[in-house]
Amino acid sequence: MKRTAFLFLMAITVICFTTMSCSNDNDEVPFLMKQSTTSLMAKKDMPNWLAEKVSDLEKDAPPLALYKVYQCKWKSQTIYHIYYNFASCAMCNTFYADGTKIDWEKKADPDDFSKSSTDWKCIYVIEGSH
Questions:
Q1: pTM higher than 0.90
Q2: What confidence category does residue 95 fall into, taking pLDDT thresholds of 50, 70 and 90?
Q3: Positive or negative, the Cα torsion across 11, 63, 124, 67?
Q4: pLDDT tens digits, one per residue of 25-70
Q5: Are 28 and 94 in contact (CB under 8 A)?
Q6: What total number of domains does the chain contain?
Q7: Are 37 and 27 in contact (CB under 8 A)?
Q8: E strand or H helix at 123, and its extent?
Q9: Which domain holds residue 88?
Q10: Are 55 and 42 in contact (CB under 8 A)?
């Protein structure tokens, strides 16, 4: 019985992951990104460092992985966030437009970011093999 329940839950999980897109009507993303709009961007239109990172993720995405690349504005700067469905921390992969990773512990205020970041857009989606 336990094995059947486990297999059923795994099947539902796979179906959910295969149907995901950048939509903002589900809870798979942190609360900041729920208000994002979908505006997919070609890699050629991304900053070079981000296009390279996306290409690397596409090559190495593990099965059932889901990456979503978001863009937003914070303190008049463009910010990029790479969401990963199996990440252990919510904002670890957040970068300034020049590719510098945001240091939440020493230099940036996550509370201010959560309150004042705006114009969230999902710009790219990477799904691992199913």
A1: no
A2: very high
A3: positive
A4: 444 445 666 667 777 899 999 999 999 999 999 998 888 889 999 9
A5: no
A6: 1
A7: no
A8: strand 118-127
A9: 2-127
A10: no
